[in-house]
Design goal:
The complex is a heterodimer of chains A (114) and B (109).
Chain A lengths: L3 E4 L2 E4 L5 E7 L5 E7 L6 E6 L6 E2 L6 E3 L9 E3 L8 E8 L9 E2 L3 E5 L1
Parallel strand pairs in A: 2-11
Antiparallel strand pairs in A: 1-3, 3-8, 4-5, 4-9, 5-6, 7-8, 9-10, 9-11
Chain B lengths: L2 E3 L3 E5 L4 E8 L6 E6 L6 E6 L3 E5 L2 E6 L4 E6 L8 E8 L5 E3 L3 E6 L1
The chains are: A mainly beta (114), B mainly beta (109).
């Protein structure tokens, strides 16, 4: 089973350009999340979606947008990248209500904004 | 504010036992998680505690004291493959996860 697939694995982007990080899961999980991970900091939630058709803002949403048109896909878009968005981005999913809350993570997308 | 504290780095010897501590101050509590993350890889789930006490799973055990805002992850019979970062996370009253910065565990032969 593929689980969660993220693309691209890594990307170098010029400041001011737009970029979409793709995330697809095949586990039919209801909830999906985007985190960024920076050295010395815990994972920080950017945006989340509890079910298809709904999204919400996390701890650090500014400069990012998401959509959840269906259960499987949860893309993250940077409209105009800035150097402070250089980070490793992880997409994650959770089965939903009634589960322990275990998150399943994709392999990550390493983004460098110059 | 909400805060999760765990040591930045620990070193242990292959075959030994190591305890990684996590203390938290959060708005409410709805469970504590431990994840393992090898360098350059995704975090993977290790354990979940919602009630006080010890949860054992093979070589790994996790302990929780809600009154003290404290948890630890105990790793026994350490193997070189246990070299990784260990992330502590608490689910608060809004069911949002608050993450610690992680503890990098270095295993020496």
């Amino acid at each position: 089973t593929a689980g969660i697939t993220q693309a691209p694995t890594s990307q170098i982007l010029a400041a001011g350009r737009s970029m979409t990080l793709r995330c697809t899961q095949d586990m039919r999980h209801n909830a999906m999340y985007w985190y960024r991970q920076d050295l010395g900091l815990g994972l920080r939630l950017i945006h989340y979606s509890n079910t298809a058709g709904t999204t919400g803002k996390g701890e650090v949403p500014d400069g990012y947008s998401v959509s959840r048109a269906n259960t499987d896909d949860f893309p993250l878009t940077l409209a105009s990248a800035v150097p402070s968005q250089t980070s490793v981005y992880f997409c994650a999913s959770r089965a939903g209500q009634g589960d322990t809350g275990e998150l399943f993570f994709g392999e990550g997308s390493r983004l460098t904004v110059l | 504010g909400q805060n999760i504290d765990q040591p930045t780095e620990m070193t242990a010897t292959e075959g030994a036992i190591v305890q990684i501590n996590c203390t938290y101050q959060t708005s409410g509590f709805n469970g504590l998680f431990w994840y393992q993350q090898h360098a350059g890889e995704a975090p993977t789930f290790l354990s979940y505690n919602v009630l006080d006490g010890l949860e054992e799973k093979g070589r790994f055990s996790s302990f929780l004291s809600r009154s003290k805002g404290y948890s630890y992850l105990l790793l026994k019979e350490l193997q070189m493959k246990d070299s990784a970062s260990y992330l502590c996370a608490v689910r608060d009253s809004n069911y949002q996860l608050i993450w610690g910065a992680g503890t990098k565990l270095i295993i020496k032969p």
